[in-house]
User: Fold these one by one.
Assistant:
Number 1:
Amino acid sequence: MNKKLPTTLITGASGGIGEELARVFAEHGHDLILAARRKDRLEALGEELREAHSLEVHVLSADLAVPDGAVRLHSAIAQADLEVGILVNNSGLLAEGNFLDIDLEQHCQILDVNARALMQLTHLFGQDMRRRKRGRILNVCSTSAFQAVPGLASYAATKAFVLSLSEALAMENAAHGITVTALCPGFVQTEMTQKEDGGHMNQPMVPLLTAREVAEQGYRATMKGKTLYINGIGNRLVQTLVKHQPRWVWHSIGKIMEHRKL
């Protein structure tokens, strides 16, 4: 008989990259725990994956923007006697615009979901994994983690935190049988990047990836235990260029781009 694959918890699985990650993990035979605020969409996805792949799919409503949201999710999974072998921290929020024009509460929610809740879930499930001496963690990050992004200031700042945390944890936990992967796509065709006119936020000179492409690449990177994976050759080239330029160059470019918006 084939060895049973580890059960995978995916947060933010009700749409976008999270939904496609659920499909990809299911296609490879992983039982799933899907968590998000939109439980009706999770239920529909769960039923689809159960029928298509004959898997166990558990659906949990979770609001990671509230202070105890991550702790509640961990407790609910423990009470259900489920073992999370792979943690996928995919939940995320963003707000586009000048930092001072965006409501402060919205910035706080971005910080809570993108950074605090991710750190809490990683700590809670990471301790479980260390006791078992095995596990994988996939943190959905962003290419915005590599430099400041005018118009997405708080979002990019949280992703810089996620990248730094992920790389440190990968080094700390290699000896404990735990891999940590930071997945860094650019802008992706999802609801989160969709504008009011129906178009999507985009990076200059870099084509949008689909959520499916990101999910497939993210799965492979996670199972190979890669610490960092940047999606798309265009994004990798841009980040290589960023790395080899003085910071003042990108500060100047950012100021020019923002001035053109005025």
Number 2:
Amino acid sequence: MNSKQVMRGLVKVWTDFDSSLSSVPLIDKLERKKFRIEDYRMLLINHRQQVVEGSRWIARAASSISAPYLDQRSMFLRHAVTEHRDYKMLEDNYVAAGGKRKDIQTAEKNIGTEALHGFMYQRATEPNPFDLLGAMFIIEGLGERKAAAWGRMIQKQLKLDDDAVSFLTYHGEHDEDHMAQFAETLDSGILEIPGIGEKIIKTAKIVARLYRLQLEELGNI
């Protein structure tokens, strides 16, 4: 597969994922303007778990890259460095939304989060796990296409200050850079690996389903 074919496949996965989000109870409540402060706190807890684990599996993936693709380690490592302190922003948002810092720091992962990161770590330990680009396409796509809109909706419905929604608004503005890095990596020659294009698309499908599962499980922590 060439880069255009891979992107067409990924866009199809994203479109299906995006259209399915409205049926997730928490997102449905947000879109119907029935969102509560308790819902937002649960969402922040979920994001913190994802951010803490996310920078770890990205770093693990970088360590699994070998010759002749060593130059691609830098993309994964840059991404891990960019993301790894975002959990502090989420903690600050949680406190600004009336929660206690200790609660978000000690919250248990829900079933969907366990499943998502179990899959991520397993794939990140495989040699040259470039299929994880499919995972990044879904997760960064949420940041670029959904985060800012969700942040504004939450802020308006709950009448929160900017410092309570800064994680969502920040990522809505900055994840576009990550998607540009994604496209650059896709064009760097990795698609010459036999079957990698199909694997990238399959991984995107798996991550989209597991990401939706962790959102569906919010409230069952």
Number 3:
Amino acid sequence: MSLSKFLVRYGRTTLHFGPGTADSLRSWLSSFKRVYVVTSRNAAKVSGALGDVLELLNHGGIKYEIFDGVLANPTASIVDRVAENAWRFGAEAMVAIGGGSVIDTAKIASVIVECGGKASEYLKRYRDVCGALKIAAVNLTHGTGSEVNRYAVATIEETKEKLSIASEYIYPSIGVDDPRYTTTLPKNQTIYTALDAFYHALEASTGRFTTPFAWTLGETAIKLIVKWLPIAVRMPGNLEARYWLLYASAIAGMAVDNSRTHLIHAVEHVLSGLEPRLAHGAGLGAIGPSAIELLYSIVPERLHGLLKYLDPDLEPTQEHSAKAATTVKKFQEEVGFTETLLDYGFTPDMASRVSEMALTSTRYLLDLAPIDVGKDLIEKIYLRSLGRT
């Protein structure tokens, strides 16, 4: 089929979607004389996105510097470093080329350049966001939806707290979703990032303050992920699969922007804060089925509307809670995700610490769940995710 290019105007972002849309940056970049480029070590180069962006910068005679040291689960200290470098360079705007970690780093750094302070002060809500540099987000994964929303996440190393900021100022001015850049994703990242979008859609559709808008986006996103993720895993270069996974990720990001995540993300943020080797999507996949069994017993009709694409025999009743969890776990295993928290060094004796951290550092997400969440419930989900009851 023909994979069309189109525009989506959402929040403060104009998203350019489809093959070849990086050229849309040309006009936006022409407004600036000095631009700071933020990437990870390899993905921007391997995907071809960095070369495309640098060609536009060079052609426009725009001065730039590059920071290529962003890691998965970015830390506050890396964000501070990016902000200081950009400020010293006199950057008027930032271009983030990467997945959620890169885009989130650029978002928080852009606030610091404009408003001063340190990343931890914004993550801990000690400072208010007063503004931000303009950001272009060239997205390289079909996971976070950070190219179209107002959230950013980073970890404070000293306390191992993975926290988020939210502000109208950090919507990217322009987003680029070109599926060609995602065909070079390694298999594990293909799976992790798609699972991230899956759980964005699921939680945005089931939270305490969800909306019909979020339901519609969430159901469409999950339907697309269920269809196209197995194809992308088997055929990494299949552009149609990448196109629809990227679209699913974007609309799941919009759903989250409206209705937030809750229980699963709250617990995962604690886990990947404690162990940075745990990719965000892997953490979600590890704990998701256990949490879904609980959530299905609370909002079975809502979850049935999403998970029926995995198993048409599911019924919207509490009695099908265990079957819903098994259905999601089976889907994850079929696409190649078999990791557990045990693989990352998590043990049963950490259950109390995980629950205590969730009830403090990510309480703001737990309060959005469709059920009151306490220590026992978090420990139960954690232990079941280890294969323990």
Number 4:
Amino acid sequence: MKRTTYLDNAATTPVQPEVLDAMLPFLGPEKFGNPSSTHQFGREARAAIEGARRQVAEPLGAEPKHVIFTSGGTEADNLAVIGGALAARDSGKPFRVAVSAIEHEAVLSAARSLEAMGGEVVYLPVDENGAVSLDALDDALELGVGLVSIMWVNNEVGAVQDIQSIAAQCASANTTFHTDAVQAIGKIPCAIPNTHGVAVTISGHKVGAPKGIGALILRDDGIVQALLHGGGQQRALRPGTENVPGIVGLGMAVEMVTQNGDKAHKTLADLRDRLESGILSSIPDSHPNAAGGHRAPHICNISIPGADNETMLMHLDLAGIACSSGSACKSGSTEISHVMKAMGVNEQFARTALRFSFSHNTTQEDVDSVLEQLPAIVKKVRSLNSALRRN
């Protein structure tokens, strides 16, 4: 039987057995109550939600009341960016947001939607390692913005921002600050900034919970407006009957991925470094992206000139290796990654970039399997590409 190697954990992770075990009772015929009901079935569901709220909040230095459950990271980003901008506008602040040029499309699209409402968007540049320009942030804050959104860890290259400093900078300007922490939780130390006006997005399926569940953590009341309207659940910021099984799964998953701390982060870094050094030593002209800056330990983004990434991904898949060329949300696009563009990566390197990403399920055997097969695959793809160019 052919070995399969999954190194696309930045796209999604498998549901962990403990998470599934915690969820199952709420998917069956016994614990099915509506958490808004006052009878014992409803109270049981409500207690499960409140328990999960604590599991999400406490490891991140937040309070349970700060946690608003959503259908995932995209909804949480939209609630933060659009809801935050509208709340800022209605409080008399500028109807203008500042976002980094390397944000996930959920943030970028949400920001662009504000322009149709009469708002403005300021795009903050990054350097060649994906670090946001703090001078540009200063300029934006001086110009006047109602909200700043800068992701904690970039999903394509792993660039880590100094979120504590950025949050303090925004707080000093009395500006709401949002960070998409989807790729940060369980990968780097994540203490939510203890400053006013902070919003943080997390997503379940990146940490071993199911798809379709996430959360927005809000340090303060009044910093976002609701985008949905209904029965008033979750302080009316995200109404609708709660996804009890998903919420229970998210709580268990966050508790698990934050338990081992530095040891888990070091294990991920060792795996990344083992793969990266192996590729650089065995494949001529390969080049790691964003390697000169602060990177999260679970992402290795490396360019292999002469081997276009779409062809590489096809051959890797045939060899039983799953990875990606960047965000799964942009899969199939012929455009160069906006992250690569913003970092100033030239087209040749951008079109040959591969992203390998790890989780606590990844083993040294997985890494070694890639290192054993990748040189031959690169040689084959380079040969094919060379032949095509000659024709």
